[in-house]
Amino acid sequence: MKRRMYILAICYLISVFLVGCALNKSSTKKDLQRLSRIEIYTSDGDLVNTIEDENILYQFNSLDYNDTSFETDSEQDELKNTVESLPVLYTIISYKTPVSVYNDGTLEKEMEITVYENSNIIKEQISSDTIKGDSIPEEYLTFYITVSEEDKDFILSLGGPNNQ
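User: That's the sequence. What structure does it adopt?
Assistant: Structure tokens below.
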């Protein structure tokens, strides 16, 4: 009888473990929030890398640079003036799968991130296509953000192994 109880307990634990693993995999897909592709371009406009790997997309989507309180207009202007003279290193464009009944497979541009040389300041420009039903001027969709060294290293790694 004890042996039967041990076997049942082990089967129960294994099934709980397997269900937990399955839930974790599906949550990654859910956490992507429809992010489907990232394209990285040089300052010349040449495509360097295209990323569709779910793990990397998840890491990109999980970047925590927005946890700082949004700067005031004067602080945004200061960050903008700081990077104005810096050369652009990369432009990263993220695309998402649109929410529609009749999706033809084309992706929507979600945002564009400009990475500057020798700076932890990035420019994030939300695509006006992501806002349905209204037109918002570009100036209200553009933010300058200071990122951590760790986030900057990850962003640079998206350009490939020789670009860190």
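The first helix runs from residue 2 to 31.
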